[in-house]
Design a protein that fits this description.
Oligomer: single chain
Radius of gyration: 23 Å
Bound molecules: adenosine-5'-diphosphate-glucose
Keywords: Glycosyltransferase, Transferase
Family: In the N-terminal section; belongs to the glycosyltransferase 20 family.
GO molecular function, one term: alpha,alpha-trehalose-phosphate synthase (UDP-forming) activity
EC number: 2.4.1.15
Protein name: alpha,alpha-trehalose-phosphate synthase (UDP-forming)
Shape: globular
Number of strands: 17
Number of helices: 18
């Protein structure tokens, strides 16, 4: 494409996600301070030069007054962000309720909430109504800002109802939807009371993407078994209209991590950490504190390893960095206490006055500290019970070109499909197997470590986040063109 001024044409990309990539703090009646959070999606899209991305989402704060909303909208516009204002009740029902209490556990095979069936059914209905209402509010904002030729990319399980709402506004809109979590087996999805409505809404999109081929296959079979539609190699067909379904495995901005390793702050951290853990092998876990990440199971496996390997007791340390999330949800509070209790017990059992086997931090680390930790680690432990992809495993590999440490990786993380040949794959529920893998990793020869690392490093550096975003959006453009050609024939 060429513009009249000779500069390359950049297609507008409207990225719609539950949360905007900013944290907003109100400083006064009409003033806000904003900080961009450099998550995976932001870096992925910043690297894509073909598109001019705009973000649409909730800013994570309740702004009930007009003055505040206007000021925040203005401040966000400078960061190419457009807010969707959700009130507290909607956030409670849609986000905490339907998204985090129902869809998140279900998609990770943890089932539907069961405490009180009757109450669950009643709250389920009001939460689903709030979910649809919230999705409609996102659609209203997208529609207001949409211009002909834009591409609309909807993200994640929060917005499964959005493709349908958007197409009702404008059937010509190019709409893609991508799921960051697993899509479970159709037998699991069948248990969801709103199973059909959600599938139909997603199918309104032109392109539907998942991290792995398995998730895409589960989605297609849910559509065939629950809706009775036809699954084809391209996707799902309904009365002659095809929704393209495919796998688009995400990656990271590997260069950002590799470059950071040579910077002064990271080198300082590396020196400090190397001195601190001199004489001990370092094992590392970095997770959001969430039940899907399998943190208690991981720590219990480490305990079993210490029980069975006396000679390693003073020579190994596990650093578990677990950033708290969804702290207002009781299950997450329970999980925090459970993890603290297990860590305390193991440190009491195997620690000495001078050292403890587990260092557990309940917080987020800044980028430089995180890179340094990845770089000095001997064995990374990623033991998610289910995980859409898991980017921590990618980040670890990117930072390991000097050390060539070992990655122990859950076979239930999407990353197992891409890093499986270089990692030691484990079933995180099998604590005996994970303990044996820790021993295998710590005793692995340098040649084998190098061979495994080389495989994973080549993958991580060649399948980047930028490439992921580019592939999805160009596939979406192509899908729409093909559909137009089909209707003309
Ligand atoms: P998450 O469940 O958040 O993402 P993950 O892919 O591992 O999981 O990404 C976590 C990110 O947060 C990483 O970039 C990591 O560096 C950072 N992080 C985690 N703990 C941290 C800590 N203590 N301090 C600092 N940073 C920390 C969801 C899905 C995944 C999928 C991604 C992307 O659940 O399966 O891979 O989206 O699609």
């Amino acid at each position: 494409y060429e513009r009249q001024d000779g500069k390359p044409f950049r297609q507008r990309l409207l990225v719609v996600a539950n949360r905007l990539p900013v944290s907003a703090v109100r400083r006064g009646e009409d003033s806000w301070s904003l900080e961009i959070s450099a998550g995976g999606l932001v870096t992925a899209l910043l690297g894509v030069k073909e598109f001019e991305a705009r973000w649409i989402g909730w800013a994570g704060v309740n702004v009930p007054d007009d003055v505040g909303q206007k000021a925040l909208t203005k401040a966000l516009a400078e960061k190419r962000c457009i807010p969707v204002f959700l009130d507290e009740e909607i956030v409670h029902q849609y986000y905490n309720g339907y998204c985090n209490n129902i869809l998140w556990p279900l998609f990770h095979y943890l089932g539907l909430p069961q405490e009180d069936r009757l109450a669950t059914t009643r709250s389920f209905q009001s939460q689903f109504a709030a979910y649809k209402k919230a999705n409609q509010m996102f659609a209203d904002v997208v529609n207001k800002h949409y211009e002909d030729g834009d591409v609309v990319w909807c993200h994640d399980y929060h917005l499964m109802f959005l493709p349908k709402c958007l197409k009702e506004y404008n059937s010509e809109m190019k709409v893609g939807w991508f799921l960051h979590t697993p899509f479970p087996s159709s037998e699991i999805h069948r248990t969801l009371p709103s199973r059909s409505e959600l599938l139909r809404s997603v199918l309104a999109a032109d392109l539907v993407g998942f991290h792995t081929y398995d998730y895409a296959r589960h989605f297609v079979s849910a559509c065939t078994r629950i809706l009775g539609l036809e699954g084809t190699p391209e996707g799902v067909e309904d009365q002659g209209r095809l929704t393209r379904v495919a796998a688009f495995p995400i990656g990271i901005d590997s260069e950002r991590f590799i470059r950071a390793l040579d910077t002064l702050p990271v080198q300082d951290h590396i020196r400090e950490l190397t001195e601190r853990f001199k004489g001990r092998k370092v094992m590392l876990g970095v997770d959001r504190l969430d039940m899907i990440k399998g943190i208690p199971q991981k720590i219990l496996a480490f305990e079993k390893f210490l029980e069975e390997n006396l000679s390693w007791r003073d020579r190994v340390v596990l650093l578990q960095i677990a950033v708290p999330t969804r702290t207002d949800v009781p299950e997450y509070q329970k999980l925090t206490s459970q993890v603290h209790e297990i860590v305390g017990r193991i440190n009491g059992r195997f620690g000495s006055l001078s050292a403890v086997p587990i260092h557990h931090l309940d917080r987020s680390l800044d980028f430089h500290a995180l890179c340094a930790l990845y770089a000095i680690t001997d064995v990374a432990l990623v033991t998610s019970l289910r995980d859409g992809m898991n980017l921590v495993s990618y980040e670890f590999v990117a930072c390991q070109d000097a050390k060539k440490g070992v990655l122990i990786l859950s076979e239930f993380a999407g990353a197992a499909q891409s890093l499986g040949a270089g990692a030691i794959l484990v079933n995180p529920w099998n604590i005996t197997e994970v303990a044996a893998s820790i021993a295998q990793a710590l005793n692995m020869s340098a040649e084998e470590r190098e061979k495994r690392h080389k495989h994973n490093f080549a993958h991580v550096t060649s399948h980047t986040a930028q490439e992921w975003a580019e592939t999805f959006v160009s596939e979406l453009n192509d899908t729409v063109v093909e559909a137009q050609l089909r209707t003309r024939q």
